[in-house]
Amino acid sequence: MAVLLETTVGDLVIDLYMEERPRACQNFLKLCKIKYYNYCLIHNVQRDFIIQTGDPLGTGRGGESIFCKLYGDQARFFEAEKVPRIKHKKKGTVSMVNNGNDQHGSQFLITTGENLDYLDGVHTVFGEVTEGMDVLKKINETFVDKEFVPYQDIRINHTVILDDPFDDPSGLIIPDCSPEPTKEQLDSGRIRADEEIDDFKGKSVDEVEEIQAEKEAKTQAILLEMVGDLPDADIKPPENVLFVCKLNPVTTDEDLEIIFSRFGPIKSCEVIRDWKTGESLCYAFIEFEKEEDCERAYFKMDNVLIDDRRIHVDFSQSVAKIKWRGKGGKYTKDDFKEYEKEHDKRSKLTLKEKVKPNQDAKYDLVLNEEIEEARASHLHSGKKHKKKKHRHSDDEEDDKTTKKSKDSDRRYEEECCREKRKSEKRERHQSRSRSQSRDRDSHYSSSKSKDKYGGELREREHDKKRERSRSPKKSKDKERSRYR
Fold first, then answer.
1. Could you tell me the pTM of the whole model?
2. Which of 39, 155, 54 lies closest to 110, judged by CA?
3. How far apart are the C-alpha atoms of 116 and 114, rounded to whole Å?
4. In this model, does residue 213 exceed pLDDT 50?
5. Residue 365: per-residue pLDDT
6. DSSP string spanning 215-284?
7. Alpha-carbon distance 453 to 455, whole Å?
8. 416: phi > 0 → left, psi -120 to 50 → alpha, else beta; which?
9. Is the bond leading into 84 cis (omega within 30 degrees of zero)?
10. How far apart are CA 263 and CA 480, in angstroms?
């Protein structure tokens, strides 16, 4: 059981799930049979998601079921069939659209994406596209607006039922032929389905190239505006300004003004230079008071020899003279230049601070000459700052610096005194230690000598005692023997 949908872009064949979704299939088949879907717009195209149609009004809010034709408005919608559950797994799945109350009318959708799980249980699947996948792809890639409505109408022209197993209910009126569309149906306010869109029809090759170049320039201007390099995409450069390039670096503004002034009065003539080095960048802009003078200079001065250089002249495409706030609309070029100057000043100050020594640090060695030089420099700077009395803020800062310098001098002096005292204490301690060591050495040597002399005296006394302890006869005999 299948249905053929003839659209303005091609044919689609839909196979129906008669056993799983009998009520939805019967509704769809009978609506096709009474030609209800003829000239219906495809009113919703979301790329790689869905294609929605089935509303005769083309708004997405209309449509009614076949049962409304049989039983009246109370049967405008019918209940959704949820069992058995069929998922939106593949492209070309056909489902009845839910009206928000788990009911369906005449609108249906065709999926153009895979694994759309969030549609399961909401919209009732009742068929799939088996032929015409290329047509489905073409509809999927059509251009749409922000509400997903195609710019060019895509319609269902005709429906053909290939097989219908359901009997026609009594009271159902079936037309003999397809009805003619009404003006309201065809008037959608969009490009008609049968209208050919060809911008280059009836135009020569040169005209086509010119149109394409204009489109490219327009897109580039829009991109520059989005990035912030242009204030407006439709802005145009002035027509009275010439661009001169390939200049000799020696050529000056006055030289060009004298040469080009023969064509008419000149408002300004500027050779563009590097803002840091001041060297010429070998191109310039010349602004005339009249456009006619600018045109004459353009035709006469191209490829002219100036200062041994063949110059090239063209109309200026620059909009640099136009005052605008740049990217984001916050800053101008002058603001950026001022910022760079301030940044350079800050960097110089940081370098000076790095060169200065830390005043709070403790030094191992401080010379009196350095202290005197520091004092002299601080006094000299203090005198200079006192002369400038009209600048109150500078005077206050100078006073602070002089106070800091005095404090630093005092600290230096105190540190010097402390170091001198420490050195004197060290010298005294060393001298004392030396004297003590000498006394110890002398005492040790004297004690040794005393020990030696004491030992000799003791030996003599001991010998005398021995002699005395001997007998008097022997001693007398010895004395006598001596005198003999």
1. 0.49
2. 54
3. 6
4. yes
5. 46
6. HHHHHHHHHHHHHTS-S-TT----TTEEEEES--TT--HHHHHHHHGGGS-EEEEEEEE-TTT--EEEEE
7. 5
8. alpha
9. yes
10. 162
